């Protein structure tokens, strides 16, 4: 699953909030950790109210100290400073996440929570996630527990099998952390449909309602097949189907069951504007304090 974990750091306390999760994940998955600092062209003097590291030697010493202070002896940790100044930090992080054809898990903190588009445009974490090339674990420092743990994993799926690509990762994490898996499918209501489906619902409400009922029944059968497979593998799991607006229902369910992690599949290469304006994953990231693991889907 995740043999490599990449943790980009800029010297700020906010970015360092990703370290507890990286340490626990590395121990449980026996993964190799890489700490990364990217020298930014025309970098500001401060980042998140902390002094921004712009000197390569200082940054290297910082990463080495951080590695020794935050990871136990059993975890292999390397560190690297990208000294060539770059204008696109998010792209540089993504490029460093791929080694020998394998995409590392990138763990980043996300401070955007206002929902305002301009703030998300300026957030490196959201930019990396929007590229959809590597799995990304987003952690909000404001909601991060003192001790990172994974006891319950919420896995939202829809009626399209492409999202089942997140299932193997959910299974692996469930085994590694002995965690409960909670599958969730949110079926829209007439009032929460969008685009062409919303138009169809307005003109043909009876037909659309019948269609949504069929979708729910299909999802129920789909979930039962997953539950049967989980049972054969000795995994503890549940499945729930609800009606409503997907993103708010996912966030609400995560809080209700006290999930420690939400795993969502994302459609990559949609572009930053498309990703953050229309993506359910982006909306969940705005609404929930729960760590969010984004898995790029291969279509």
List keywords for this structure.
about 300 residues, alpha/beta, 2 domains, 12 helices, globular
Topology (SSEs and partners):
Blueprint: E1 4-8, H1 13-16, H2 19-29, E2 32-40, E3 46-47, E4 50-51, H3 56-70, E5 77-86, H4 89-96, E6 98-99, E7 102-103, E8 105-109, H5 117-121, H6 124-131, E9 136-139, E10 152-157, H7 167-177, E11 180-187, H8 195-203, H9 205-232, E12 237-243, H10 246-256, E13 261-266, H11 272-278, H12 280-287, E14 292-296
Parallel strand pairs: 1-2, 1-8, 2-5, 8-9, 10-11, 10-13, 11-12, 13-14
Antiparallel strand pairs: 3-4, 6-7, 9-14
Specify the number of helices. 12
Describe the largest sheet. 10 strands, mixed
Morphology call = globular
Instruction: Give the helices and strands as they follow along the chain.
Output: EHHEEEHEHEEEHHEEHEHHEHEHHE
Low confidence ranges: 113-122, 269-278
- The CATH top-level class label of the largest domain: Alpha Beta
> What is the percentage of strand-forming residues?
15-25%
Strand element count:
14
Main β-sheet, spatial strand arrangement: 5-2-1-8-9-14-13-10-11-12
Going by CATH, the homologous superfamily of the largest domain would be HUPs
The N- to C-terminal Cα distance equals 19 Å
How much helical structure, as a percent, in the residues?
A: 40-55%
Describe what you observe in this structure.
- The chain has 299 residues and is an alpha/beta fold.
- The protein has two domains: 4-139, Rossmann fold, CATH 3.40.50.620; 152-296, HUPs (Rossmann fold), CATH 3.40.50.620.
- Residues 113-122 and 269-278 have low confidence and may be disordered.
- The chain starts with a strand and ends with a strand.
- The chain is built from twelve helices and 14 strands.
- It is globular, with a radius of gyration of 20 Å.
- Strand 6 and strand 7 form a beta hairpin.
- Helix 4 (89-96) crosses helix 6 (124-131), helix 10 packs across helix 12 (280-287) and helix 11 (272-278) crosses helix 12.
- The protein has helices at residues 13-16, 19-29, 56-70, 89-96, 117-121, 124-131, 167-177, 195-203, 205-232, 246-256, 272-278, 280-287; strands at 4-8, 32-40, 46-47, 50-51, 77-86, 98-99, 102-103, 105-109, 136-139, 152-157, 180-187, 237-243, 261-266, 292-296.
- The strands form three sheets. The chain has a ten-stranded mixed β-sheet, with helices on both faces. Strands 3-4 form a two-stranded antiparallel sheet.
């Amino acid at each position: 699953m995740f043999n490599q974990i990449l943790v980009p750091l800029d010297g700020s306390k906010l970015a360092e909030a990703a370290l507890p999760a990286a340490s626990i994940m590395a121990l449980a998955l026996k993964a190799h950790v890489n700490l990364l600092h990217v020298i930014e062209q025309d970098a500001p003097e401060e980042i998140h109210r902390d002094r921004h590291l712009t000197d390569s030697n200082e940054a290297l010493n910082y990463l080495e100290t951080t590695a020794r202070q935050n990871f136990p002896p059993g975890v292999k940790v390397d560190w690297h400073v990208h000294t060539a100044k770059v204008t696109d930090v998010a792209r540089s992080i993504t490029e460093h996440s791929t080694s020998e054809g394998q995409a590392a898990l990138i763990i980043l903190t996300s401070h955007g929570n206002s929902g305002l588009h301009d703030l998300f445009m300026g957030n490196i974490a959201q930019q990396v996630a929007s590229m959809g090339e590597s799995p990304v674990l987003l952690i909000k420092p404001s909601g991060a527990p003192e001790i990172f743990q994974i006891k319950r994993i919420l896995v939202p799926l829809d009626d399209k099998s492409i999202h089942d690509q997140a299932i193997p990762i959910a299974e692996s994490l469930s085994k590694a952390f002995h965690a409960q898996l909670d599958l969730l499918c949110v079926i829209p209501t007439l009032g929460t449909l969008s685009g062409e489906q919303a138009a169809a619902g307005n003109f043909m409400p009876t037909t659309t309602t019948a269609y949504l009922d069929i979708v729910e029944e299909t999802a129920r059968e789909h979930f039962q097949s997953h539950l049967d497979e989980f049972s054969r593998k000795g995994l503890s799991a549940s499945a729930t189907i609800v009606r409503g607006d997907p993103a708010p229902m996912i966030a609400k369910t995560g809080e209700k069951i006290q999930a420690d992690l939400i795993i969502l599949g994302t459609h990559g290469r949609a572009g930053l504007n498309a990703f953050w304006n229309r993506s359910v994953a982006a909306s969940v990231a705005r609404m929930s304090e729960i760590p969010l693991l984004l898995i790029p889907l291969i279509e």
